[in-house]
């Protein structure tokens, strides 16, 4: 995190370039801590969010899809091999996280996004390379987002965790119902250029211009009075809650917890199972092969 008190601009950089700036729970918690600190800083008017290595963020780290929930265990009676069981003997085995664990964890997880939606400072997103999953949501939540023409955006995890990922209210409000359904039901990634004509983001520019334009917007907004920004942000939040987000603070994590607890048929792609067999990289390759349908 960097602060520039004389201009009122602070910059937070997601720094995990080897993983295209994906983040795990500790990284997300650190990001939330930085945002909380800046929210209380009277010298900060604008927060610029960016990533390293030419990428904004590829979202949650999917190397352990259930790791966000911790490891569930189940104890079963120990079998003697003859159909009987030993009374005190127990065998502990791993199992999928329980629904109660999912709800508790998802409720805490979505609190981060709820706070960002209502953040009291102006937020600028410098969206380069990739903005996937949670990274896509952060870009949509920013007050001003500058996106590269070739930046790829979307929710690819819907292909193996279900179309109920993320904040459905956000997607329908910012993308519109037609585009939201298309992106969530297919997992398609679209480029900044493809989204440009829909007016989803503030500005779409050549890839090399993204950092310069994001800085320009940050400095432009920073000329506004600090109290005016805070009051405006609260007014914007109220209007969006009344028009587009009613019930979102409960429904977002509820849909996510229920919607991602899936069973898979033999002909359906099960990322968690394939990842365990072939590793993360090959699992992503096989995912793309499964969902690649040539256009007629």
Could you characterize what this model shows?
The chain is α/β, with parallel strands linked by helices. The protein has one domain (2-69, 99-262): Alpha-Beta Complex (2-enoyl-CoA Hydratase, Chain A, domain 1). 45% of the residues lie in helices and 19% in strands. The protein contains twelve helices and eleven strands. It has helices at residues 25-39, 99-117, 134-141, 158-161, 168-175, 177-186, 192-196, 210-222, 226-243, 248-259, 271-278, 280-291; strands spanning 2-4, 9-14, 46-51, 72-79, 85-95, 122-127, 130-132, 144-148, 152-154, 190-191, 203-205. It has a six-stranded mixed β-sheet with strand order 1-2-3-6-8-11, with helices on both faces. A hairpin with a 4-residue loop joins strand 1 (2-4) and strand 2 (9-14). Helix 2 (99-117) crosses helix 10 (248-259), helix 5 packs across helix 6 and helix 11 (271-278) crosses helix 12. The longest helix has 19 residues, at 99-117. The protein is globular, with a radius of gyration of 21 Å.
Any descriptors?
single chain; alpha/beta; six-stranded mixed β-sheet
C-alpha geometry:
globular
Number of helices: 12
- Report the major sheet: 6 strands, mixed
CATH architecture: Alpha-Beta Complex
Helix content: 40-55%
Number of domains: 1
Helix/strand order: EEHEEEHEEHEEHHHEHEHHHHH
Spatial extent as radius of gyration: 21 Å
Number of strands: 11
Structural class: alpha/beta
The CATH topology assignment is 2-enoyl-CoA Hydratase, Chain A, domain 1
Q: Widest sheet: strand order?
A: 1-2-3-6-8-11
**Beta-strand level of the residues, as a percent range?**
15-25%
**pLDDT average, as an integer?**
88
First-to-last CA distance = 48 Å
Contiguous runs where pLDDT drops below 50 for at least 5 residues:
none
Task: Give me the CATH superfamily.
Answer: 2-enoyl-CoA Hydratase, Chain A, domain 1
CATH class category name: Alpha Beta
